[in-house]
Amino acid sequence: MPGAAVAAVAATGTVYIASDSTAQTYNSRYYPQAGWGQKLSSFLSSNIVVANHAIGGRSSRSFIEQGRLAAIHQVIRAGDYLFVQFGHNDATVGNPERYTSPADYKEYLRNDYIRATRARGATPVVVTPVSRRSYNASTGKFNVSFPAYVDAAKAVAREEGAPLVDLAAASRGYLDGVGIEGSKGIFLWLAAGQYPNFPNGVQDNTHFQERGAVEMAWLVSRAVAGLGLPISGEVVPGVR
């Protein structure tokens, strides 16, 4: 029946990711370091292509100033998506190349990421900044990372009616579940000699090792499944 045929048509398109090192794709020289953006395709059907433009050290402002958002906007099409997650580098007050005040961050999200993406017929999805390994030792609970930027992202998504993935809350809830010691297996905490790419070991409370990147990508996909967008039906059911 014609109606059945229409209903069976799957959503297609490309998910572009504009973000920083927490979402970046890393090559084998950095293994086991990974970003959630490089793992996201594992949780989406083959109808969706992920184009990960995330790169380390960028803020919402510098990503624009360096022409990286313009490069996405040159190729993004109707039916595509732009997932935008910044905040980690925006908050670096001591680095003028990166620092972006929460107020300016909010307006960059509004004008450059949300409205300019919609003008091209694509759908912007605001992603709040993923949590760092920052916790209250007394309670064992994880802190809200970059709260001013989390609040600004949520506010502008609400004001613009843009889809929101609250990865800040989802990742913090996940980390509370695995606990302070368990979170070392999520972040890039490696012993000396454990991996050839990190011979001296590392204790990194911001970036993820492969397991952490997979878990964060899974959290993003679960949130996308509940957004009521065409892509929501392309999230692969089941567990990671």
TrEMBL record:
<dbReference type="InterPro" id="IPR013830">
    <property type="entry name" value="SGNH_hydro"/>
</dbReference>
<dbReference type="InterPro" id="IPR036514">
    <property type="entry name" value="SGNH_hydro_sf"/>
</dbReference>
<feature type="domain" description="SGNH hydrolase-type esterase">
    <location>
        <begin position="20"/>
        <end position="172"/>
    </location>
</feature>
<dbReference type="InterPro" id="IPR037459">
    <property type="entry name" value="RhgT-like"/>
</dbReference>
<protein>
    <submittedName>
        <fullName>Rhamnogalacturonan acetylesterase</fullName>
    </submittedName>
</protein>
<keyword id="KW-0378">Hydrolase</keyword>
<dbReference type="Pfam" id="PF13472">
    <property type="entry name" value="Lipase_GDSL_2"/>
</dbReference>
<comment type="similarity">
    <text>Belongs to the 'GDSL' lipolytic enzyme family.</text>
</comment>
